[in-house]
């Protein structure tokens, strides 16, 4: 884990509330793995904010974040040429099992941030399908030109099949990322998820047999194969954090193995190990 000051190479709003920042951080870029995160100082706030690595290669890393409150609002105002203080890379990353075959990534909202990095790292070696669900067309995300220009490995995303879905049907498929992804699971070898708590709870309910998921067009039932894939899927959790390094227990969650800290034991967990019913958001 490193503490460093990184120069901001690029900062732009890529959606109404979504900011892309590309930072010069060679020591993090050289060792970070998909699924890991950094703690970022936002203005003068005492607590740093956790943000996933969205892309990394060469000397650079990229962050993609939604302006959710005071910290991310302050960070969004940091312009090109200024610096930010970071700690990272933190947490464990996604694991890539040796099985071959289709990989399905299910991203709800800002869950796209870490899953893009994973998709880029798997593309070329696997058939990768990335399903991104957002509320409406204005929240859709397309890889910004500046990211392609400044972070070379992002090119690999051209080999990823990218499906978009909107809750209101204003663009892409009508429905949530989960609804669109479920029919793809029958042919999948591995699944990764990152998204809002509601998406994970819905996936858990589906896998537990507590109801079919009704898609806009049809009803999908959980087959034993789908259940097995969801239970063994990897999920990246976004809970409130304090220290980010295992010292304060602010991020502790219930798992089948007892309470675990998202910052040091996660943020990536086996989906079936998380006790979803008992997680407070
Ligand atoms: C490991 C990890 C990786 C993350 N990666 C990203 C990312 O790549 N992009 C991104 O946009 N966000 C990410 N988040 C969420 C991000 O950390 C929060 O949105 C941010 O800390 C909010 O800070 P704030 O000061 O702007 O808002 P605050 O004023 O602190 O809170 C504003 C609102 O955001 C909610 N919130 C606060 N912290 C979190 C949190 N940790 N997770 C979810 N909701 C929160 C609060 O409940 C409140 O409703 C990640 C969180 C974790 C734990
Ligand atoms: S945030 Fe302090 S222990 Fe995880």
Main-sheet strand order equals 4-3-7-1-2-6-5
Number of helices: 7
User: Would you count the extended β strands for me?
Assistant: 18
- Tally of separate domains: 2
* SSE arrangement, N to C: EEHEEEEHEEHEHEEHEHEEHEEEE
Low-confidence region ranges: none
- What is the CATH class name of the largest domain? Alpha Beta
* CATH homology superfamily of the largest domain: Nucleotide-binding domain of ferredoxin-NADP reductase (FNR) module
- What percent of residues are in strands? 25-35%
Instruction: For the record, give the distance between the C-alpha atoms at the N and C termini, rounded to a whole number.
Output: 27 Å
- Helix content bin: 10-25%
Mean pLDDT: 92
Radius of gyration: 18 Å
Overall outline:
globular
Describe the structure.
The chain is α/β, with parallel strands linked by helices and 281 residues long. The chain folds into two domains: 89 residues, Beta Barrel (Elongation Factor Tu (Ef-tu), domain 3); 135 residues, Nucleotide-binding domain of ferredoxin-NADP reductase (FNR) module (Rossmann fold). Helices cover 19% and strands 33% of the residues. The strands form four sheets. A seven-stranded antiparallel sheet has the order 4-3-7-1-2-6-5. A seven-stranded mixed sheet has the order 11-10-9-8-12-15-18, with helices on both faces. It has a two-stranded antiparallel ribbon with strand order 13-14. A hairpin with a 2-residue loop joins β16 and β17. The longest helix has 11 residues. The radius of gyration is 18 Å and the shape is globular. The relative contact order is 0.15. The mean pLDDT is 92. Bound molecules: flavin-adenine dinucleotide and FE2/S2 (inorganic) cluster. The site of FE2/S2 (inorganic) cluster (FES) has 12 residues, from loops.
């Amino acid at each position: 884990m490193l503490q460093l000051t990184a120069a901001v190479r690029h900062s732009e709003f890529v959606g109404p509330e979504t900011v892309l920042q590309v930072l010069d951080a060679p020591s993090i870029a050289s060792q970070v793995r998909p699924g890991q995160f950094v703690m970022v100082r936002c203005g003068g706030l005492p607590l740093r904010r956790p943000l996933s690595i969205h892309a990394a290669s060469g000397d650079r890393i990229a962050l993609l974040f939604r302006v959710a409150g005071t910290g991310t609002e302050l960070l969004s105002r940091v312009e090109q040429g200024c610096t930010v203080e970071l700690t990272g890379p933190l947490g464990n990353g996604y694991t890539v099992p040796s099985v071959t075959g289709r990989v399905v990534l299910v991203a709800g909202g800002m869950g796209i941030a870490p899953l893009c990095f994973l998709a880029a790292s798997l593309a070329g070696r696997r058939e990768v399908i990335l399903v991104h669900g957002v509320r409406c067309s204005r929240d859709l995300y397309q890889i910004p030109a500046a990211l392609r220009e400044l972070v070379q490995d992002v090119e690999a995303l051209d080999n990823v099949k990218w499906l978009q879905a909107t809750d209101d049907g204003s663009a892409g498929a009508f429905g949530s990322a989960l609804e669109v992804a479920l029919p793809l699971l029958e042919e999948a070898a591995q699944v990764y998820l990152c998204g809002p708590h509601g998406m994970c709870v819905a996936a858990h309910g589906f896998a537990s047999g507590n109801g079919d998921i009704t898609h806009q067009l049809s009803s999908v039932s959980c087959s034993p194969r789908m259940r097995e894939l969801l239970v063994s899927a990897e999920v990246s959790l976004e809970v409130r954090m304090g220290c980010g390094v295992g010292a304060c227990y602010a991020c502790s969650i219930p798992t089948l193995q007892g309470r675990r800290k998202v910052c040091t034991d996660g943020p990536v967990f086996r989906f079936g190990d998380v006790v979803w019913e008992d997680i407070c958001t």
